[in-house]
Amino acid sequence: MASPYHHSLSSVKKWGGDVDDYLATHEWLDASKELHGDFRHRMLRHHSQGIYEAARVFGDRLTLSSGRVIPTRWVGEQHVVEDCGFIPSLSDWCKQIQPAAWMNRPSQLSQSTTSPHTPAAERDGDAVADRRWSEVINQALQDRDRTLPIVEIDQEIWDSYIGAMLNGIEDQLRAS
Asked: Which of 37, 40, 54, 160 has the greatest count of CB atoms below 10 A from its CB?
């Protein structure tokens, strides 16, 4: 696994300038190593959305010490391709997650009075919403070529699902 420094050396060879011109961007892309020390850290920023997020964090363009101006996305794309071999989408990463029962038990914190570890039958959750989530997950798993956003669900359910999924990924990485 390359370090941000080695990615920066590669950027210098490609576009000129100094290592310090690129180091912050490469460090940001690899910051998730703090959560998980192997390749799985990449699922948090090594994808097309992560590259666009880097441009939002560091600006659309980087001005190198040589005076050359390059798109920040180029640096992100170079980093991801060096680590993954191509630029995956977030959906590419999500398709590889093996669903576990705890990932499909949503509850609203303001309404839940029980532990998330309490069996579903004992919780105060909304059984209709639980069934809807199960339908969404099952549909996505049945058709691996489709991504979850294509499944017809309302925006509030989708936003809630993505938030719960990302929290679950971070919790899983911390636990590993």
From this structure: 54
Per-residue pLDDT tens over the stretch 15-70: 999 999 999 999 999 999 988 888 889 999 999 999 999 999 999 999 999 999 99
Kindly state the tokens that stand for 23. 């180091």
Q: How many CB atoms lie within 10 A of CB 79?
A: 29
Write the DSSP assignment of 43-93 as a string of letters: GGTSSHHHHHHHHHHH-SEEE-TTS-EEEHHHHHHHHHHHHHSS---HHHH
Residue 77 to residue 45: CA distance in whole angstroms = 11
Counted residue by residue, the chain has a size of 176
Structure tokens at 107: 């509850």
Residue 71 phi/psi, 5-degree rounding, is -65, 135
Rounded to two decimals, what is the model's pTM?
A: 0.60
Angle ∠(96,98,104) on CA atoms, nearest 5: 120
> Which SS3 state, helix, strand or coil, does residue 173 take?
helix
Three-state SS across 5-48? HHHHHHHHHHHCCCHHHCHHHHHHHCHHHHCCCCHHHHHHCCCH
